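Query structure, 445 tokens:
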């Protein structure tokens, strides 16, 4: 058994709990419990995630949750049922006691099994990626994104220019940061430049300062010197700035700059199109595309959806007084039906809004933002079917006749009022009625 105070700090673990986890009481006391997974499954963060009481326990309710414990020394993973009981007065919980028992399948609900399974999968995936790449920040089981990880690994071991292409929200800047911070230049600064958002004069000045400054002289501290220049929406970079960068980087001084600063760019469209229509010069195009990486939209990597959703939820748990542990089965169904046009950014935003709307440890369907539900309804209806293309003149004539008749009805036959409604002159109305063959026998002046 173990004891957690109202601030989610561990205050006690008995011998049985220390034996189960491989952690000594003195090493754990004072650690704050947050329900989140860690790339190192035997870390203190992973242990406190398993010890973290569900939110309803702090609200005075007993909770029974399946948790996974990884022994610190042996690495053996054991699933156990943890019974959480609040201790305190009727209106306040001072402590939560956790009692760890053998797992009984009959005590699990469907939602509990889903939550604990996804949490365990996320922890295992983080651990595997950290072992292979030294980073746990690109989470995937899909073959397309595995290829991205392999390309990131190749890029970080060199200084070549990298271009990342993909839809909005697919994590292009994140990929650029992983390449930078996991490389030998990672102790230097990552400098993002938004080519589409910055006004042209500010963009030119930013590039000028980067290529003309003597950074080692101006900023002797390595962490303040640029180690990666990230040109986002690079296809919006003006041609004169492209030429200036190419000339600088091709010079002897530019060669020294490239030895210490990596150039990474990104775009939403294929750069071949930007090159073909001459938005990018030949020299600049070949300069920035030594290695090209294509990020995959979320709708094409739905096998990763649960892992990614759990990751974003646990990231949002950080520094929150109330902790959410997972999603209901109904939420998963809606997530899997939605096509996520905003990709990872939209998934993160939806989870954040749902977390703000939640009133317990499990995100339910009624917690999801309204825009997701309307988006689902729109997807179910599908796009409007295209009808046959009509001849323009008969179509315009039919629309005009209908509008004039409606205006006359609203004006009770008064052509002056009808003309005012249609925002045309009365003589023009008479001419249009005559052309369309509309009778004026019932009209009045």
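Result returned for the query:
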């Amino acid at each position: 058994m173990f004891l957690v105070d109202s601030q989610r700090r561990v205050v006690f673990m008995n011998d049985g709990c220390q034996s189960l986890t491989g952690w000594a009481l003195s090493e754990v006391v004072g650690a704050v419990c947050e329900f989140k997974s860690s790339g190192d499954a035997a870390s203190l963060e992973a242990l406190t995630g398993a010890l973290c009481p569900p939110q309803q326990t702090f609200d005075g309710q007993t909770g029974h949750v399946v948790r996974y414990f990884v022994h610190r020394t042996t690495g053996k993973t054991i699933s156990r049922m943890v019974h959480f009981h609040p201790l305190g007065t009727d209106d306040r919980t001072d402590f939560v006691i956790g009692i760890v028992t053998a797992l009984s399948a009959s005590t699990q609900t469907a939602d509990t099994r889903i939550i604990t399974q996804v949490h365990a999968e996320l922890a295992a995936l983080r651990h595997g990626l950290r072992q292979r790449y030294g980073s746990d920040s690109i989470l995937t089981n899909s073959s397309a994104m595995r290829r991205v990880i392999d390309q990131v690994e190749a890029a970080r071991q060199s200084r070549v220019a990298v271009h990342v292409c993909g839809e909005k929200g697919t994590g292009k800047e994140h990929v650029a940061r992983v390449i930078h911070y996991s490389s030998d230049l990672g102790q230097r600064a990552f400098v993002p430049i938004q080519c589409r958002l910055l006004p042209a004069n500010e963009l030119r000045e930013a590039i000028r300062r980067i290529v003309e400054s003597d950074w080692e002289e101006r900023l002797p501290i390595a962490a303040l010197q640029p180690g990666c220049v990230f040109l986002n929406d690079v296809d919006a970079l003006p041609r004169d700035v492209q030429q200036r960068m190419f000339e600088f980087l091709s010079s002897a001084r530019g060669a020294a700059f490239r030895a210490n600063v990596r150039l990474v760019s990104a775009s939403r469209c294929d750069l071949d199109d930007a090159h073909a229509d001459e938005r990018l010069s030949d020299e600049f195009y070949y300069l920035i595309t030594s290695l090209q990486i294509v990020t995959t939209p979320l709708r094409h990597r739905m096998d990763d959806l649960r892992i990614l959703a759990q990751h974003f939820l646990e990231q949002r748990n950080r520094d929150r007084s109330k902790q959410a542990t997972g999603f209901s089965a109904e939420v998963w169904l809606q997530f899997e039906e939605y096509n996520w046009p905003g990709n990872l950014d939209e998934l993160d935003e939806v989870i954040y809004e749902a977390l703000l709307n939640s009133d317990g440890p499990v995100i339910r369907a009624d917690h999801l933002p309204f825009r997701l539900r309307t988006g689902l309804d729109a997807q179910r209806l599908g796009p409007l079917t295209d009808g046959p293309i009509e001849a323009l003149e008969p179509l315009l004539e039919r629309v005009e006749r209908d509008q004039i008749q409606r205006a006359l009805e609203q004006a009770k036959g008064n052509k002056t009022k009808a003309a005012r409604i249609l925002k045309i002159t009365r003589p023009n109305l008479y001419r249009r009625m005559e052309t369309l063959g509309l009778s004026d026998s019932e009209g009045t002046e």
